[in-house]
Amino acid sequence: MRVTEVGARAFRLPLHRSWDGGVDRNDVVVVRVSTDAGLVGTGFAWTPLIGARAVAALVNDDVRPALVGQRAHPARWEELRWHLREAGTSGLTLMALAGVDIALWDLSARAAGMSLVDLVGRRRESVPAYGSGVNLDYPLEDLLEQVRGWVQAGHSAVKMKVGSSDLARDVERVGAVRELVGSERLLMVDANQRWDVPRAVRALEALEDLDPHFVEEPLPAEDLEAHARLRERTRIPFAVGENLRTVAEFERAVELGVCDVAQPNVVRVGGITPFLRIAESMARRGVPVAPHLLPELSGQLALCLPRVAMVEDIDRASFAALGALARPSGVEFDRGRVSAETGHGHGLVFTDTLTPVADASP
Predict the structure, then answer these.
(1) Residues with Cβ < 8 Å from 360, sequence gap 6 or more?
(2) Of 85, 149, 179, 128, nearest to 337 (Cα)?
């Protein structure tokens, strides 16, 4: 089975409610890889705000000529990364690779007459999920309403944002959510890289009695040495990884003792192929993986991982919730767990009514 065509288009998905800082949309780059067997695989890249058309251009202008005529298999990943190296080995190039890699995995599963989960290797039928929202800007009552929705949906774990300019505001909000969810549910906090070491020390000291299950990205993601200094000042576990890109970066984080839960984003690391390598590496080091966002695909991959924590059930920002899918994917979140029965491939069929980024209002 050989590749006959590769194409990518960027689309805009307006959010139901803006995320912190005025993020009012997610952009998605839909990639389709066609073959001489008549099968078409679908992949995607995801960019909340920046770079969708650049990612699509990399696929169309640079990946396409390197892939057409080649065998349609995810084993192409290394040579495609090498092919794109002059444009960089991280960032946009990995996101472009992700769209193609996901499409090639979808193709492989379709050709085998299997679901993606069963092709990768299903280890379990369901995985715990947690309610998550980008809610630092929410008034307190709106935050509590969101959390009540997760509790009513059956989640036994929730995550909220911290990092206010006023520490007392964070303490009040985390305390209110802890009171709402009770001691029997897990409560995680995500600082989204907003602190420096002194602020993080003060914040984590103030929050420790509220028993956070972990703190996510307390410091700038690339500064792992600063995380190591902070590690000496708190007993709260660290979750990192949504802004790490390579196996080596994840392994370095573990070596420094600052990665208690790994959170790779399947698009940002370059696709399913490197995602699985990261997960295997983390398993060998005793670190569970909690995939970052993209719940319809993250949920499928979580069913296959050797050591998994939880899957992020992002509030009203899945592809389904954003109206991006033509039909149900087969990935279901129910009573705080995620399962997947997708049919052949990964089950993600994007609707043809999406608004192209070039046609969207600024």
Answers:
(1) 12, 25
(2) 128
Report pTM: 0.97
Q: Which tokens go with 226? A: 């600063």
Distance CA 314, CA 321 (A): 10
What is the crossing angle of helices 272-284 and 92-112, to 10°? Answer: 90
Residue with tokens 């630092």: 136
For the chain, what is the radius of gyration of the CA atoms? Answer: 20
In a structure prediction context, what are the per-residue pLDDT tens digits for the chain, which is 362 residues long?
999 999 999 999 999 999 998 999 999 999 999 999 999 999 999 998 899 999 999 999 999 999 999 999 999 999 999 999 999 999 999 999 999 999 999 999 999 999 999 999 999 999 999 999 999 999 999 999 999 999 999 999 999 999 999 999 999 999 999 999 999 999 999 999 999 999 999 999 999 999 999 999 999 999 999 999 999 999 999 999 999 999 999 999 999 999 999 999 999 999 999 999 999 999 999 999 999 999 999 999 999 999 999 999 999 999 999 999 999 999 999 999 999 999 999 999 999 999 999 865 54
Helix, strand, coil shares of the chain as percentages rounded to 5? 40, 25, 40
Residue keyed to tokens 């980024």: 357
Bridge partners (DSSP) listed for residue 190: 161, 216
- Residue corresponding to tokens 């009203």: 316
* Contact between 171 and 142 (Cβ < 8 Å): no
150 CB contacts (<8 Å, ≥6 apart)? 130, 131, 158, 313, 315
Q: Where are the alpha helices (DSSP H) in 85-188?
A: 92-112, 116-120, 140-152, 167-181
Task: Tell me which residue of 77, 79, 76, 74 sits closest to 106, measured CA to CA.
Answer: 74
> Shortest CA distance to 3 belongs to which of 97, 103, 98, 113?
103
**Neighbouring residues of 152: CB distance < 8 A, sequence distance ≥ 6:** none
Cα(20)–Cα(24) distance, rounded to whole angstroms? 9
The CA-atom distances, in angstroms, between 109 and each of 2, 54, 79, 276, 347 are 15, 28, 21, 16, 10
